[in-house]
Amino acid sequence: MTWYLAAYAVFWAVLFGYLLGVASRQQRLVERAEALTRRLAEGGPGSESRP
Amino acid sequence: MSWWPRSWRQFWSTLDGRTYHMMLAARPWIGWLAVGTMAVVFALVFWWVPLEAIQGYPQKIFYIHVPSAWIMYAAFGVVFASSILYLWKRTPLWDIFARCAAEVGFLFVTLALVTGMLWGKPIWGTYWTWDARLTSTLILWFIYGGYLLVRALARPDADVARLAAVVGIVGFLDVPIIHLSVLWWRTLHPEPVVMIIDDPGGGLPASMLITLLTSLVAVSLIFTWLWIQRVWQERTAENLALLEALLDRRERSAR
Predict the structure, then answer these.
(1) Contact call for A7 and B119, based on CB within 8 A
(2) How far is A22 from chain B (nearest CA, A)?
(3) Is the pTM of this model over 0.80?
(4) ipTM for this model
(5) What is d(CA B31, CA B111) in angstroms, rounded to the nearest whole number?
(6) What residue of B is the nearest CA neighbor of A9?
(7) B74-109 residue pLDDT tens
(8) What architecture is the B26-192+204-242 domain classified under in CATH?
(9) Which range marks the domain in which residue A33 is found?
(10) Residue B174's CB: how many other CB atoms inside 10 A?
(11) Which of B55, B123, B241, B250 has a CB 3.0–4.6 Å from the CB of B59, allowing a cystine?
């Protein structure tokens, strides 16, 4: 029974570990998108044409 | 029929865009279906399916080991097909499809190897033996591990993508070798027990077959969801990089 439970525990641990990696990539993408939005807002639409 | 492509070129560009958008639309459904099916698998494995008479509890590893191995085949099938399409069409989306399928496929080879080792110890008395099935699977692990390592370290450009596509195609040749190894050579690993042409059920009792097929559906859904998610992330990262470069240029020219 130990081997069977160990196999299922490892299966889920590896899968959740990968899922956490995917979630942290998602978080980094969101932060990059937010930074980009801030930069765009600071520049403003058509900011080059402003005096 | 305005939607009907007028040329092969238009057909391929429509297919690229439509495939991607259909994948994104299906993503939440696939995710929730995966969670639901996996809950059913849990119930079947822990409470419903009977113990196998000879092996007892360790045989229950079968319900995660075999689907992981099947999904590993499917994942590298996606790498193979997408790599061919990338070399033919040179559309970056096919390269992203291949790269992400290799990454998620690598996860499932690892799971097939680890669960196999944990099954091997109580039944064979050893975690590992250099038999044809295990060795050829380990070779696949190294092939795609190397593929992912090179892609992670090299600067992403068309040359690296082209080389990776060739490795993705050649590496797939190991998949039929893995599958047929138990028939070609004398191995400790058992021969296939299901999906045999003459006997698709393989003589498995109905309860075991139902549990196995439900687990296969659940693991397929998990693979598909992870793959779509990674494709979306890679595509989004590329779009963000493009926007960042444009903003950098605009800010430099404004100074």
Answers:
(1) yes
(2) 7
(3) yes
(4) 0.83
(5) 20
(6) B115
(7) 999 999 999 999 999 888 889 999 999 999 999 999
(8) Up-down Bundle (1.20)
(9) 15-39
(10) 19
(11) B55
